[in-house]
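Session log. Operator J.P. requested a structure for one protein chain; no other inputs attached. Running the standard single-chain path with token output.
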Amino acid sequence: MHYLSQLYYDTALPTNPHALRSLEELVGAEQILFGSDFPFAPELLTGVAVQGVREYDGFHDVARLAVERENALRLLPRLRRRIGS
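Structure written below.
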């Protein structure tokens, strides 16, 4: 558990409340990044993944923004320069 709690995880499709709650108990929102498996997953599943993160009641607004965007930008600062924010 010690080593697992030091990793970062992406959502990559299993965005149902049970999976997200379990992951959040392990690492917290600051170590979760949005992932969709696009373009390898069907577009419908990508939409479900987006909706699952947005509707998950365990993330407050700041945590949701972190998962959707800010955690990736913190880990990969060159992305911030590329997207102009």
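Operator note: The two ends are 35 Å apart (CA to CA).
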